[in-house]
């Protein structure tokens, strides 16, 4: 079974631009969660999508948005990029229900650098 | 709201020795699930071990075991016979009743040859 795939692996943008990150979950998984990881803040939860609906949301500004498609693939969008958005963005997929179902499988991440 | 605390930002252990990573959490729920995740330098996060709160028996996976103290809200990870490949960031995580996973700040483990 293929793992969680995140594209692109690396991205360089400038302030004010927008960016879209993609995540393909493990086949059969219906839940996709996004996290921002920085050395100072650690792993911070962005949002979770389950069956195309946002089920949980972290404390991030509205510049961060996401969506999930019918095939469970998810995209995360960040508009009007700021220097502080430079981070590793991790995507995790899970079946989505119950303890075993919520074991999260992570992708390798997208390293975003904002210049 | 639930919180997860890992009080040791960094730890080190000699190869073949045993190390224990600490995790405490705060919750008012009675039934929940706890996880330890490992993130090696390659950045791919993987599940190490999980514990169901209603089970009193501590979970074990090969060299990894937990000491789950529900009353104290403590969930420590013990790594026995440490190997160089165990060097990584370790995250303690809590699964809430509404299916949200909350991660602790992580502990960076170094293994000294």
Description:
The complex is a heterodimer of chains A (115) and B (113). Chain A has 115 residues and is mainly beta. Helix content of chain A is 3%, strand content 52%. In chain A, the strands form two sheets. In chain A, strands 2, 4, 5, 6, 9, 10 and 11 form a seven-stranded mixed sheet that branches. Chain A is globular. The mean pLDDT of chain A is 91. Chain B is mainly β and 113 residues long. Chain B is built from no helices and twelve strands. Chain B has strands spanning 3-5, 10-14, 19-21, 24-26, 33-39, 46-52, 60-61, 64-69, 74-79, 88-95, 101-103, 107-112. In chain B, the strands form three sheets. In chain B, strands 2, 5, 6, 10, 11 and 12 form a six-stranded mixed sheet that branches. Chain B has a four-stranded antiparallel sheet with strand order 3-9-8-7, with no helix packed on it. Chain B has a two-stranded antiparallel ribbon with strand order 1-4. Chain B is globular and about 40 Å long. Chain B starts with a strand and ends with a strand. Classes of the chains: A mainly beta (115), B mainly beta (113). The interface between A and B is medium-sized, with 24 and 22 residues.
